[in-house]
Amino acid sequence: MNSAAPALTPTTRSLAWCLHLLVIGLLALAAGRAVTDGGPDSGWTIAVSAACILVYAVGPTLPCVRRSRRAAALWLAVVGACWLALLTLSSDAVWVAFPLYFLQLHLLSRRAGPAAVVATAAAAIAGFAAHQSSFALAMAIGPALGAAVAAAVVWGYQALYRESEHRRRLIEELTATRADLAAAQHTAGVLAERDRLAREIHDTLAQGLSSIQLLLRAAERVLPQAPQNAARYVDQARQAAADNLAEARRFVAALTSPTLEGSTLAGALDRMCETTSARHRITARFHLSGTPTPLTTAHEVALLRIAQSALANTVQHAEATAAKVTLSYLDDHVAIDIVDDGCGFDPAHRPAPDPETGGFGLAAMRARAQDLGGTFTIETAPDHGTTLAAQLPLTPPADTKPEACP
Fold this sequence. Notes:
The chain is an alpha+beta fold. The protein has eleven helices and five strands; from the N terminus they run αααααααααβαββαββ. Helix content is 65%, strand content 9%. Strand 2 and strand 3 (333-340) form a beta hairpin. Helix 4 (69-89) runs antiparallel to helix 5, helix 7 packs across helix 11 and helix 9 (265-279) packs parallel to helix 10 (297-318).
């Protein structure tokens, strides 16, 4: 009934109403017995019983009694004083001691509650003995046993309440933890999808646009002297734009790469080398080593994208005249190697990725290989060409989540 007491639930609220009705019923019983007996103090008994009922009924309706332990203790003291007055008038008031035990243990502190119960039990025993004009041990058994039962019930309820509150807090913590975990998984999924989309855009649309730009620049250079060559470059740029448009449409529709549709990985790599040789001043050749074995779509897309990105880097930066793409099927893994005779670079002094100048290709290739449990290595030096090698296990590790295909 106050801030220190356990909060009422529907069940405990019903029990509280039962306790209120019990108190009022026992007080009404004492008044009724006084009317029936018609003794000399019956009028006073009825008046004091009515006063007890009134004081008891007013207490639970006062906000201060519900919120303050001190106000509740004061109200309980007034109820106790009325009960003592009634006890001096009627022996029937001794039965009211039993519900008072519950109120005292529930409303008072841990120290004051048991002390009040003991005092109430002693008063009940003394009052009943006074009305009987004698004392016997049996007179003390009823009030004492009632006090013990009330204490056991209240303390048991409090223990159950504490355990229930502990479980409730654990459930709330678990719910909050699950919500945090779900939010973290959602964030991780968003970041992973963002990273995947960045790699796909870099290896497809961005590389295609770079190829178109190189072809149009070549057409611009030869246009005054050789218009027919310029027309050929423009036609190749138009074809590259058409290919990238198809790539973008498949990308949006979340389908497999159009390069792999109706073809094997080896066939797609061979056509890619032929297209690169036809569009740019470089001779790109494809070589297949080993016996082809079925690969997952994630493996095929990763190997194709690595080769596309590597050849695009060769065309744009390496100033190479020849490049070789080798697809190797080995016992427990598949590998792809891209070798060019270009100018090479110093791996320790690579420029940082920049939205204007690029530089995301090598990181994207490495990420693709690592996502499938594979490795990615670079062998290069200034003026000594470049070799890129990626190896993927034929059976990805159990904890590796295959990359979704665009």
